[in-house]
Amino acid sequence: MSVFYNSIKINLILAFLSKVSSLIASFLFIPILLKGLGLESYGTWVTLSSIAAWLLFFDFGLGNSFKNIVAEGNKDKIIKAYSLAISLYLYVSLFLVCCFFVFILLNNSSIENQSAVILLYIPLCLLFPLSLFGFGIQGLRLVGINAIIDALRVFIWILLSVSYIYLVENKYLYILSLIFVLANIIPQMLQLIVFKIKCDFSLRINLVSPLAIIKEDSFKLAIRFFVIQMSSLVSFNLGNILIYNYFSSADVALYDVYNKVFLAGLSIFNMTIAVLWPEITKAYFNGDLKLCQNLYRKISFIAIIFSFGVLVVAFKFELLLEILTLNNLLVVDTNLLWSIAILTILQAVAYCGAVVLNATNELRLQMLVSITSIFLIYPIFLILLNLNFGVMSYTVATTCLVLFAAILYNVVVPKILKVSYVD
Questions:
Q1: What is the average per-residue pLDDT within 128-142?
Q2: Which of 7, 78, 105, 218 is the most exposed place for a label (fewest CB within 10 A)?
């Protein structure tokens, strides 16, 4: 057991140090990028780059399904799941490239923005299959190593972007797109290499037909993960786009800075989730419900500490803007600030229950909540917009849905972990 907990501690320490160092660098980079591009161009860029996060959700949940299967440690299952997942990733990659070419042909945006879109999304779509190996590394319970590689992505992006901003007089978004792509390629190649080295057996690609993929049980499980991921995408990655469409680039810039601060903290908390997810999976499928309960309590305790940290940041936010030298560029909107802070706390609470449901493949409840959230988020946003909630409409709408999920998941999880495990 001591070896088990030592493994968790090492992963947590590596993940925490990697995430904190990359976040500090990211915070220091915000004023540089904001001053270098200007408020309007910054708002446009963060909107474009936020859409890139959507690509990660087009694996139809097979990434998380693959992670769970790798964590179980069954060689035959891993080999089969690998061929299934990599085949789907390749098909999706080609499909997305075709879709973006159609989008470019039908879109009437400026030439610079079109160039930025093409140079950002086409390479990311083609390299989409490489994103599978990060899930594989997590499944191998090497979350700390994966976190170091992810931190490298941030440092490459910042180093090259800062060099471009300071060395070149005229700033173009399409150049930032190229830098962003390069910053993603290098870590993904490293993830591929690490996964191949750490896997105890050889994995070869046996291309599976789309029809055969659909018939597989693992694909059906993956679809459940996909629905949950889509809910997360719609709930938390739609903000920049809706604010950009209904307000202005300047409002997007304000919202993005606020959101980045609290999401930075949430991403540190998510390191705990990433480390303990495969551990819960392994314990559950070994029939060790007591260990699952202990891990769930640990996550809940960390969530309480994290929530206090969020409140401190919210109270001292003006000081943080001064440290980032953004106090002269951004005016503190107290209502928006606290709406994002409360949402962040509720997300952490919801994740406590959700990670157990994910790790144990108990996804039906989350699917129901996710589908409901996908359909309700936009109507609630419009209602709040008409009630003059302004930019805060999106965060309040999301908060309502997350509050419901947080309560429901954490009521259900203790009941699941009390049920006797049957192999």
A1: 85
A2: 105
Q: Which of 17-21, 109-113, 121-125, 309-313 has the highest mean pLDDT?
A: 309-313
The type of residue at 69 is I
Half-sphere exposure of 320 (CA within 13 A, CB side): 17
* 258 closest CA partner among 339, 378, 155, 312: 339
Q: Answer whether 290's CB lies under 8 Å from 411's CB.
A: no
Residue 149 neighbours by CB distance under 10 Å? 21
Q: Which residue spans within 44-193 are E strands per DSSP?
A: none
Q: Which of 92, 53, 85 is nearest to 70 (CA)?
A: 85
Q: Which two tokens stand for residue 197?
A: 């080295």
- Spatial distance between the Cα atoms of 336 and 346, rounded to a whole number of angstroms: 16
Q: What angle do CA 137, 26, 252 make, to 5 degrees?
A: 110
Averaged over 141-169, what is the pLDDT? 84
Please list, in sequence order, all residues whose beta carbon lies within 8 angstroms of the beta carbon of residue 182, skipping any fewer than 6 positions away.
156, 160
C-alpha to C-alpha distances, 151 to 21, 80, 85, 123, 160, nearest whole angstrom = 8, 30, 25, 21, 15
- Burial of 242 by CB count in 10 Å (0-12 exposed, 13-18 middle, 19+ buried)? buried
Please determine, for residue 70, whether its predicted confidence score (pLDDT) is greater than 80. yes
CA-CA distance, 42 to 31, in Å (whole number)? 10
Question: Of 144, 130, 127, 271, which Cα lies nearest the Cα of 193?
Answer: 130
Q: How far apart are CA 114 and CA 404, in angstroms?
A: 40
Furthest-apart CA pair in the chain: how many Å? Answer: 66
pTM (predicted TM-score)? 0.67
Asked if residues 341 and 313 have their Cβ atoms less than 8 Å apart, the reply is: yes
pLDDT, position 237: 65
Instruction: Determine the pLDDT at residue 102.
Output: 78
- Please measure the distance between the N-terminal and C-terminal CA atoms of the chain and give it in whole angstroms: 22
d(CA 87, CA 367): 25
CB 65 within 8 A of CB 218: yes
Please give the Cα distance from 194 to 198 (Å, whole number). 6
Q: Report residue 126 as tokens.
A: 């083609």
